[in-house]
Amino acid sequence: FVRCMLHSCYSSLILFFIPWAAMYDTVRDDGKDIADYQSFALLAQTCLLMAVNVQLCLDTHYWTAVNQFFVWGSLSAYFAITFTMYSNGMFLIFTSVFPFIGTARNSLNQPNVWLTILLTSILCVLPVVAFRFVLMQLRPTINDKVRYKMRKEAVPAPTPRRHPRKVSTRRSGYAFSHAQGYGELVTSGRFLLKRPTKSRSTLFSQVDSPLAK
Amino acid sequence: MMASSYNAKDEDGHITVSGPGGGTLKNKKPDNTAFKQQRLPAWQPILTAGTVLPAFFIIGLIFIPIGIGLYVTSNNIKELEIDYTGVDMSSPCFNCSQNFSWNSTRPCTCTIPFYLEQAFESNVFMYYGLSNFYQNHRRYVKSRDDSQLNGDIEALLNPSKECEPYARNENKPIAPCGAIANSMFNDTLELFYIDPNGTKIQIPLMKKGIAWWTDKHVKFRNPGGNNPNLTAVFQGTTKPVNWRKPVYELDTDSENNGFINEDFIVWMRTAALPTFRKLYRIIQKKNSMIPTLPRGNYTLEVVYNYPVGSFEGRKRMILSTISWMGGKNPFLGIAYITVGSICFFLGVVLLIIHHKYGNRNNSADITN
């Protein structure tokens, strides 16, 4: 709980103060205003969205085509909706509801703004990555150790052995528990032997092959 | 084993079950496609030393040059700020700031001399800055009527309720209504250059091209279409309480009069922070041989109309050049350099940790 609290406090501070400091007394590259209320709101909103998306990418355990579609799709939908909401047409039809007209066009074409967004998202995600990495080094969980071992064993045997066992076909993250799981594997001690075990290695070598290269 | 029996009928999705009457039941199992059986090819990001450490070093190495570039660009921007609030006795504008009253017909002027150390080249932008002015107060920001400002005749004569109490005055609707319009900045600033002979030359200031294109051409429109006679169009409305002139007398140029007056538009774009600057005029560059503002003595003449003493605000005039990253703001450069170096340092620290403790992955006590 404390870790979550710390992480969220840190993210909130970053997501506000970096755009604030970047916008303080700043103007566009043609001299016109950018530090107005609407542009600042748009900037903070976009920073937040990018940071959340990057965090999501990091936390997704199994990247399938569906995942890719939804993550990139949500980002493009955000930009599409933002531009639509801030377009001339919507303003002219519903004047008081969409007063932010022109804000996206005028602020998102500034390199200043994009650099701020990049900085904020990376700054939000860096501690998470570093923390997880350190945890993995100092206190590896059983999962991590298994993965490490499997990668070491999979690398010298690059051809994946497709075993007709059906348990390896179920590959989505949550369904891990529906498959055999580690129990039988670990207690039988086969795992500790140096020869690649058939049921596990197919699973991991399939998944790890892009990384193992 | 549970696993084997589970697997036997898993793959085949088209088992037909024969019922007792000899008919076949259509099976309800999902099709045996990769998508429905969740067999899509997948990739799993695992944080290993081989991916994380290079990533940290690369990010560090990319950010530091970006930060240096931003910082150098920001330092090359020339800026000059003159605070002309007139709070202490020695300031030329002290009299103006003290003797303020709304009904004074004779405007108070003050003159501030200053010296420009370096010549300013290319387009120079003149801003007015206010401090301690909360244009981001919620009730203030809502106090406007965008339909009226868009030229809607209906809204011109019946301003929305958001504008209260600045919607009507003496039973006539106020155009433009609202607190934002009412508090429009109305000081006049003029620049004079004093050349070595002693003659005072007025510097030409451009008042067009200071507002966003979308604001001037889409968001703000004068009512009555393109009718050049704005006095007639605004018949039946009255000026905001704190204004000296009505909205159709803001400028003699008809392209800059009424609601599409650029100073008005710039003011209506409410600022996000209590200390802000807004573009006032542009000093165009002359040919590339002569600097736009040469070194030397200048004077700033202020027609002091705008009172800021009641909320302890400050007013200033800012002259600035511009680069591709906007005005002078070294924060982004410094932030990038800092983050880049922290990243690099963190990468080194993680490398050390990995070397010392990374072998725990190889330990044999896994089954316990």
What are the salient characteristics of this protein?
heterodimer, A: 9 helices, disordered C terminus, B: 368 residues, alpha+beta, four-stranded antiparallel β-sheet, extended, disordered N terminus, metal ion binding (chain A), transmembrane helix (chain A), P-type ATPase C-terminal domain-containing protein (chain A)
Rg for CA atoms of chain A: 24 Å
- Biggest β-sheet: strands ordered side by side in the sheet of chain B: 3-12-5-10
Largest interface between protein chains, with number of residues from each side: A-B, 89 and 86 residues
Beta content of chain A: under 5%
Structural class per helix/strand content of chain A?
A: mainly alpha
CA gyration radius of chain B, whole angstroms: 33 Å
**Share in helix of chain B:** 25-40%
Structural class of chain B: alpha+beta
Q: Per the principal axes of the C-alpha atoms, what is the gross shape of chain B?
A: extended
> What is the residue-averaged pLDDT of chain A?
75
- Main sheet of chain A, how many strands, which sense, barrel? none
Number of DSSP strands of chain B? Answer: 12
- SSE order of chain B in H/E notation? HEEHEHEEHHHEEHEEHHHEEEH
**Could you report the average pLDDT of chain B, rounded to the nearest whole number?**
82
Short description:
The complex is a heterodimer of chains A (213) and B (368). Chain A is mostly helical and 213 residues long.
Give an overview of the whole structure:
Chain A: Residues 160-169 have a biased composition (Basic residues). Chain A: Its main location: membrane. The complex is a heterodimer of chains A (213) and B (368). Chain A is mainly alpha-helical. Helices cover 65% and strands 0% of the residues of chain A. Chain A has nine helices and no strands. Mean pLDDT of chain A is 75; it is low at 157-170 and 194-213. Chain B is of the alpha+beta class. In chain B, 28% of the residues lie in helices and 17% in strands. Chain B has a four-stranded antiparallel β-sheet. Chain B is extended and about 85 Å long. The chains are: A mainly alpha (213), B alpha+beta (368). The interface between A and B is large, with 89 and 86 residues.
